[in-house]
Structure formats: C-alpha cells, structure tokens
Amino acid sequence: MTEIKKIENYSAVMFAFPPKLRYFAEVEAAGGAVFCAYKDGAPVGLICLREQQGALDTVYLYTSEAHRRTGIAKSLADYAADYAEKSGKNFRLRVPENNPGAAALHRIAADMNMRLDGEILFLTLEVNEESKRAWEDYRPGLIKRIARLEKRLGAAKAVTFAEAGQDLLDELRTEIGVGLPGLDPFKLPDINPDYSLILTHGDKIIAFNAVRTVGRKMVYEISAARGGMTLAAGVPPFFDRLFASDTERVTCAVYADNADGLSHAQGQFGFLFKNSGRQIIYIL
After folding, report:
1. What is the separation of C-alpha 51 from the centre of its chain, rounded to a whole number of angstroms?
2. Host domain of residue 107
3. Mean pLDDT to the nearest integer, 206-230
4. DSSP state, residue 67
5. Is 222 helix (H, G, I), strand (E, B) or coil?
6. Rounded to an integer, what distance in angstroms lies between the CA atom of residue 113 and that of residue 103?
7. What distance in Å separates the CA atoms of residue 19 and residue 120, rounded to the nearest whole number?
8. Of 57, 65, 62, 9, which is closest to residue 30 (Cα–Cα)?
9. Which of 73-82, 259-268, 274-283 tops mean pLDDT?
10. Both 140 and 107 in a single domain?
11. 33 - beta bridge partners?
12. Backbone φ and ψ of 31, nearest 5°
C-alpha cells in the first residue's frame, strides 16, 4: 500500500533520494510544499512544489528506480493537485523536453486531463572572451538608443538591490503584483543583490529585474516593467558588471507566447544568448 505524507522536516527524506537539496531550498523560500510517497514504510517517491505566479509548480518529481511504472508518480501528482486546489491555487506540471522521463510526464498530464498552459524557452549565455567582445561591440549602439529613448520618456536611474536603501526596497515590495507584474523577488533563494536592479523614473519605480546565483552560474529569473516603460536603462550596468565577474553562465527563461520578451531576448541579444532547451507546462 502506498501512503503519501506532507514533509515538514526535510532532513527526514533528503538522504533517501538523489542529492537535490536546492529544491528543498526553493520550496522553503517560495512558500511551496514537499510530499513523499511511502511503500511499506520506506520513502519511494517525492514531489516538490514551488509557489509561483499564483500556482504551485512542480520543481522536482522523482520515483525510486525499483518502483517506477507502478503509478507512484501519478499518485504524487494527483495528491499535489488536490493540495493546490484546497490552497486556492493552480497546479502546474513542468515537463523539460530533454528530461528522459518527459514521455512519462506527458502521459501523467494526459491522464489527469491537464491542459497546456504554455511553453518556456531557455536562453543561455556562456560568459567568455567571445561573448565579452560581442557585448563590447554592441554596447555603444545600445547606449545611443537608450539616450534617444530617455530623451522621449525621461531619464531612468538604475540601482542594484545592494545599493538601494530600505525605503526603496520596501516600496518595491508593495508594488509587486500591484503596479508591477511578476514574481516576488524577495522570495527567491540565492538572490544576487549586486545584479538585481530597480529602475526609477523620478520618485517612481518603473521596472526591476532579479537574478540569483548558484556557484558561478546565474539564473535570470524575473524582469517586469510598467506598461509603456522599459528595462533598457538597466542593461548596460547588468552586462558591464557581468563581464567583469567570474560568472561562467547565465540562463534566462521566456514564455513562448511572450512575443515582446522573445523579441527582446532573441532579437536584440540573440548574438549573446542561444536557445538551450524548452519546457512544456500543463495546468490543472
């Protein structure tokens, strides 16, 4: 008989599965939940959920090799979906296309009558001498475009989270999900305050981005701006600091149906960022 329990003390299961401690950290920081499946009292499956954009996203779904193809992963997904519904949130199953278990996850989604919510494209920048030269060639033209933009809209000021005073950080907290769309950057684990930026126009916050780092790798998690505004003024400070650092790689994710985001990332920075993968997201 399979029993599923919500895990409150992660140390009770973290050594029963492959070492994925960062998933526990993400759940802890983002207000998600962890559920473990037990067979005859032994842990055999795990699902980690991260709260994101009003939904509970699967960041990790694993079944012990000896218990695969026995319905445990489906049971965990069903249990997580029920938990999300009781919490008043959507349940999302994320399927990396390069994951060996992608076909099984697609079957689970179909069995649960989940619908396709979107597709995420992952873009990767390898930080090396070649990309640094490409940025240095591109930078002067971008500075001129920003100057023309600011002449029309007014100058914007870019301040890192590390440089921002407490009043500005508190103001950003109140604007998330109200005046500014996007995730709450203050819930992200490993957020890097030296690269996460706030853009102001006069005394008003008009945009922000947030990144997190794990070792020498960086994940560009969020960018958001008020309608009609732009993140352009924050681009040179970000890349200048990046290419002066020891960062090895930057990865960002863009929804395939976000035409503006894709156009910006691929059109303006396609010479830096290369497509590196994709995920299908189902929703229930």
Report:
1. 11
2. 2-113
3. 85
4. G
5. strand
6. 15
7. 25
8. 57
9. 73-82
10. no
11. 49
12. 75, 35
